[in-house]
Design goal:
Layout: H1 3-14, E1 20-33, H2 46-49, E2 67-73, H3 79-83, H4 88-106, E3 137-143, H5 152-160, H6 165-168, H7 172-178, E4 219-225, E5 229-231, E6 237-239, E7 241-248, E8 260-272, H8 274-294, E9 299-302, E10 307-314, E11 320-327, E12 333-339, E13 349-352, E14 357-359, E15 364-371, E16 379-388, E17 394-403, E18 417-420, E19 425-426, E20 439-442, H9 448-458, H10 465-468, H11 471-476, H12 480-487, H13 498-510, H14 519-526, H15 539-549, H16 552-567, H17 572-582, H18 585-598, H19 604-620
Parallel strand pairs: 1-2, 10-17
Antiparallel strand pairs: 1-8, 3-4, 5-6, 7-8, 9-11, 11-15, 12-14, 12-16, 13-15, 16-17, 18-19, 18-20
Helix pairs in contact: 9-13, 9-16, 13-18, 14-15, 15-19, 16-19, 18-19
Length: 621
């Protein structure tokens, strides 16, 4: 069914009183937990299914129900009944119901009263056309097993004194319904009968067994109606459900439960006036067509066609694309930009302003789309959808080629680091690479770019971590020149500021596919897994365990970076002064450093604790 058809049906439903005829029916609902008992011989259930009268009827005349619906529980709880789908006992109880109805209603009301079994619902039947909640009126009956939250002695004393009203406030079902925890929008009439469970068989005595169960109203009948009132043909309001009687059959004693029944005057849809319904439908269709034609949003996008093409995008590049959306229709339009499929490219895009956009008639919206690489994929081909609510969509093609250089490479993807053993120095350029016997491959050392950056920083004495991570300083930094030099494999950074060198090192660490401390190690150390080696809060011990688990190359880089941080770590006085001048700059510093080593796998508190533990451990050594 299309959306327009659904809307039509909803509007037709809203006007159903105009074409629907309603009729009042007496509905008798009963529930009985028979406690796995055999059907007693020569018994009728007339007190349960017959002796229900209108409380407001002074003549005490029997209200003949139009519908009788009864629910039995625990007819046969044996395993065989479930395995073999044995209906023998069900059939026996059905016959008792039939006999009772025939004896009580048909016999006493001559030939104008006839009852017929319409349906028998069994728990093993699982195929339903509708859900329960689809119905306009629902009766829910059964042994719901809710108890009274009151000491046994107090409950029994209240029953003996016939003072059960205070017990209603402790009735678990009513308490839960008041809190909307169960049976939301259902209603139950006032209970004017004693608790229906648990009795000694064939007596009026509540449970005297060893368990001495607390008497409770376990057997209940609830109802719900989608509408509280409807209009009849005379445009008079009628209550959808009115309770005539709600009681228990206290003289039916062969079970440990007393059966409960209720008689209700229910307003039910009786028939539909097809001519009137068709007339209203045609009226709604004409109205809908007129509104729809007047309210279809129409836009025009420039440039046409919209194509986002970014070639050879390097790390830290943020190319932009601008488009304009014109509302050329006769109504306000609402539009947004969404991906055509699940992809990683959409998260790399930033829209200014953020969608959705509400564009008035004859107005336009300028949108700037910027791209920042957050993926290691080299080629991105995608389609964005400029979705117009209730209008035609526009497709925006997206073609991007990425050149991330060393950013995003794992440590294993770099060429092996070389060391000149004769001159006691690393080889930073291709010119010095030869087959000399003095050139050693340092397979356990990190890539040369990391060594070059860290060694350059170690030679400087002006590293102020709190200063570097100050927002004002970060806004002034231009890392594009040093990034371009790295792309050209030129690792001489003497002409760059300390802040630029340090931040490009942070970017390299944060762009690793796996953090320096791998996700696997983080999980084993910090998360509650089977291989968890220590308590989660024992972070100090975790440092030495992590170092042992690191591969040689990761361990080497970890130590180099950690020693650099330890050497320039601010004092308490410096931290206090910086926080006073620049807000919570110390925690910002911890955040960035922790993310460079751990990425975002752990929560913020764990990352902070780990970094501080590393620095403290290093100081001890």
């Amino acid at each position: 069914m299309s959306n327009s058809s659904k809307r039509l049906e909803i509007r037709l439903k809203e006007r159903e009183d105009e074409y629907t005829c309603y009729k009042q029916f007496n509905v008798l609902v009963g529930t009985f937990n028979v406690n796995n008992r055999q059907v007693p011989p020569n018994i009728l259930l007339e007190e349960w299914l017959y002796q229900v009268t209108d409380n407001n009827n002074k003549s005490n005349q029997i209200c003949i129900p139009d519908i009788i619906a009864v629910g039995f529980q625990e007819i046969d709880t044996s395993g065989g009944a479930y395995i073999y789908d044995d209906k023998k006992k069900e059939d026996e109880w059905e016959q008792i119901v039939r006999k009772t109805i025939k004896s009580c209603y048909e016999k006493n009301n001559e030939e104008n009263v006839k009852f017929e079994l319409l349906n028998r619902v069994r728990l093993m039947e699982v195929v339903r056309k509708w859900k329960i909640s689809d119905h306009d009126i629902i009766f829910w009956c059964g042994d719901m097993n809710y108890r009274i939250s009151q000491p046994n002695e107090q409950v029994r004393q209240a029953i003996n004194e016939l003072s059960t009203v205070p017990l209603h406030e402790k009735d678990q079902l009513r308490c839960e319904m008041k809190l909307n925890n169960i049976f939301t929008n259902y209603y139950e009439p006032p209970i004017n009968f004693l608790p229906t469970y648990k009795f000694d068989i064939n007596t009026d005595n509540y449970d005297t067994s060893e368990k001495l169960r607390t008497p409770s109203w376990t057997d209940r009948i609830l109802y719900r109606s989608k509408r509280s009132k409807v209009l009849n043909d005379n445009q008079n309001e009628l209550e959808t459900i009115k309770t005539i009687h709600y009681s228990c059959a206290k003289n039916i004693k062969f079970s440990d439960h007393r059966p409960v029944s209720g008689l209700y005057l229910v307003v039910i849809k009786y028939e539909c006036d097809e001519k009137r319904s068709n007339r209203i439908r045609e009226e709604l269709i004409r109205e809908s067509d007129r509104i729809e034609n007047d309210s279809i949003p129409t836009i025009e996008v420039h440039p046409r066609p919209p194509q986002i093409i970014f070639n050879h995008i390097r790390y830290l590049d943020k190319p932009n694309y601008s488009l304009t959306i014109n509302n050329i229709g006769e109504c306000t339009c609402i539009c947004t930009i969404i991906p055509s499929s699940i992809s990683t490219s959409f998260q790399c895009l930033t829209f200014t302003p953020n969608p959705p956009y509400t564009i008035n008639i004859k107005q336009e919206q300028h949108v700037n789309i910027s791209f920042e690489a957050k993926t290691n994929i080299k080629q991105i081909s995608d389609i964005l959808i400029l979705h117009v609510e209730n209008g035609a969509d526009t497709f925006i093609t997206l073609d991007i080629t990425l050149d991330k250089g060393p950013f995003g490479l794992s440590l294993e993807e770099y060429s092996c680091t070389l060391y000149d053993n004769e001159n006691k120095k690393y080889i930073f350029t291709n010119d010095n690479r030869s087959n000399s016997e003095h050139i050693i491959e340092m397979i356990n050392d990190p890539p040369i770019i990391y060594i070059a950056l860290i060694d350059c920083l170690r030679e400087r004495n002006d590293i102020d971590l709190l200063y570097i991570f100050n927002n004002e300083i970060q806004d002034l930094l231009d890392l594009i020149p040093i990034r371009n030099q790295i792309y050209e494999n030129n690792y001489n950074f003497t002409n760059y500021s300390t802040e630029e060198i340090f931040m490009i090192l942070i970017h390299l660490l944060q762009s690793l596919p796996q953090p320096l401390i791998s996700y696997e190690i983080q999980d084993k150390i910090f998360l509650n897994t089977k291989e968890n080696l220590l308590r989660q809060d024992d972070v100090t011990k975790a440092v030495s365990i992590i170092i042992e688990r690191l591969k040689a190359k990761e361990r080497n880089l970890f130590f180099r970076f950690l020693l650099l941080l330890q050497k320039h770590w601010p004092t308490k006085e410096q931290i206090q002064k910086a926080n006073e001048e620049s807000g919570d700059i110390f925690n910002i510093c911890i955040d960035i450093l922790a993310l460079s080593i751990l990425h975002e796998h752990l929560d913020r508190n764990q990352r902070h604790a780990f970094i501080l533990a590393c620095l403290n451990e290093e100081k001890k050594n």
